[in-house]
Amino acid sequence: MGIYWIDSGVLISAKNTLYAPELVPAFWTFIETQLKNGNVRMPKKCFDEVVDGNDWLAKWCKQRKNIGHFCCKSGRDAQQRYEAVAEFVMSKHSQHASAEFLRGGDGWVIAHAAATGGFVVTEELRNKNPSKVKIPNVSKALRIPWKATHEMCKELGGFGNV
């Protein structure tokens, strides 16, 4: 089983929709357990996107920053993979679309997954519009497996028994 590298949108979407903490607290316990076990990780750039605020999610993440590899710095291999991601994105998309994609943590989640032989986890969907760069499109083109949150949860045993 590989490492599941989560995009910031995974937690943001979870909090705002189906896995809201008041509706499914077991999801949040599950994520914390998987962080402790090292199965789920988040690049620092993605972590920074989530904690840039003062809402419930930002506080939840800040309290768990030092659990496992929740706020994972980029080593040499991830940095080299990021360069490849950036080169690919810039070769296939406009300067504006590339800059928007590379400004956030999206490229880093792909780079970390590539560096560890893991999976990218995102709630983004593939698109055919080249004016907007999406994680699944880049992941597929670079042959880095990606999954949705519910797939990750299922593969890690689910959270109904937490």
What is the percentage of strand-forming residues? Answer: 5-15%
Class based on secondary structure composition and strand pairing? alpha/beta
pLDDT < 50 runs, ≥5 residues:
none
The level 1 CATH classification is Alpha Beta
How many domains is the backbone divided into?
A: 1
Named CATH architecture: 3-Layer(aba) Sandwich
CATH fold type = Rossmann fold
Biggest sheet, strands in spatial order? 2-1-3-4
Q: What fraction, in percent, of the residue positions are helical?
A: 40-55%
In short:
Helix content is 55%, strand content 6%. The protein has 162 residues and is α/β, with parallel strands linked by helices. The chain has a 4-stranded parallel sheet with strand order 2-1-3-4.
Question: What does this protein look like?
Answer:
With 162 residues, the chain is of the alpha/beta class. The chain has one domain (4-155): Rossmann fold, CATH 3.40.50.1010. It is 55% helix and 6% strand. The protein is built from 9 helices and 4 strands. It has helices spanning 8-16, 25-37, 44-51, 56-63, 76-92, 95-103, 106-116, 135-141, 149-155; strands spanning 4-6, 40-41, 119-121, 146-147. The protein has a 4-stranded parallel β-sheet. Helix 8 links the parallel strand 3 (119-121) and strand 4. Helix 1 (8-16) packs parallel to helix 3 (44-51). The longest helix is centred in the middle third of the chain and has 17 residues, at 76-92. It is globular and about 45 Å long.
